[in-house]
Amino acid sequence: MGQNELTDHHTQRGTAWLATADLRPTRQRVTLATLLVGDGRDRHVTAESLYEAASATDEKVSLATVYNTLRAFCEAGLVREITVDGSKSYFDTNMSDHPHFFWEDTAQLTDAPADQLEISRLPESPAGAEIASVDVVIRLRRT
Q1: Which of 6, 48, 131, 137 is most buried, by the most CB atoms less than 10 A from its CB?
Q2: What Cα–Cα distance (Å) separates residue 77 from each residue in 3, 17, 33, 74, 81?
């Protein structure tokens, strides 16, 4: 979806996505939701890349608002955060369990085929803890 192609249909899809999590549809949230899911495709974004996309629309939002909104989307279960290198976070709209490829040369995160991943055993969690999730990020270097 081009940055300036926020059609009524895309906006309706973004608003409906927010409604699934009972999030109040503020103008900024609707804009960011529309950019994330308005065209019906899943995507991986950083706060910075979403901020750039939002900057190209009529609804200007600050980078702080983008960060806060992505946190709210995570807490509401609409996106999940994938951390790469301990400092770079990507936000994924595909909530199914699946691994990721991280392309080192372009710093791009893409889905990896879930049906090809086999994890036969995880270590036991320490007493008083449970495994919340397992993120698999496979780092790729072009040859």
Answers
A1: 6
A2: 25, 11, 13, 5, 10
Token couple for 11? 């906006």
Write down the pLDDT at residue 70. 97
Give Cβ neighbours of residue 110 (< 8 Å, ≥ 6 apart). Answer: 44, 100, 101, 103
Tokens coding 77: 């279960």
Neighbouring CB atoms inside 10 A of 60's CB total 11
Give the burial string for 36-49 (b: 16+ CB within 10 Å, else e).
bbbbeeebbbbbee
Write down the pTM of the prediction: 0.87
- C-alpha–C-alpha distance, residues 13 and 3, integer Å: 16
Cα distance from N-terminal residue to C-terminal residue, the chain: 31
**pLDDT for res 5:** 54
Of 63, 26, 30, give the one whose Cα is nearest residue 47. Answer: 63
Structure tokens at 56: 């190209």
Residue 99, pLDDT above cutoff 70: yes
